[in-house]
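pasting for the record
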Amino acid sequence: MKQHYFIGIKVPEHIAKAIVNEREKTNVHTTHKTLPVAEDLHITLFYLGHVEQIVLTSIVERLQDIHWEAFELTTSGLSHFGNAQTPRVIYTALEDSNPLHDLQQKIVQQLSKVIEINNIKDFNAHITIAKKWAAANELHTTDFQLPKMSFDVSHFSIFQINNNRSPRYEDIVCIQNRGV
């Protein structure tokens, strides 16, 4: 199988553990096939999929050219993609953040100089906590009561996806913020 990658922001350990602890108060372990471990919680900025090593090197060079300021993100409850009764993805939402959206746009702009980018979806920043619906019973998430938690973002990373390991996502390149 070919190696796949994505660009993202790792969720700090203390927040990731708090999210996973709240997830344990729900029944998503019986309704969904995939529950990421705390070490894998992240915000995807762009899914690259398979790219050749030479292209990956060019991507890293382009991403290092981005000028951006560090910023703060804040969690904002629980949400989902798909039908509310049988959501394909359940996630911790984030408060709207112009700096985050600006960073994501700058990343896409730089990537477009190296790879072909098709079908750009609207960016919806989120932290996936469960995916791949797999049940006949009802979902119960009312006990998920994560307080708003804030964290600073001063870098993002390129992650390599390792399907046969846990944690699955390996940070292979870290891009630090560089002021505007």
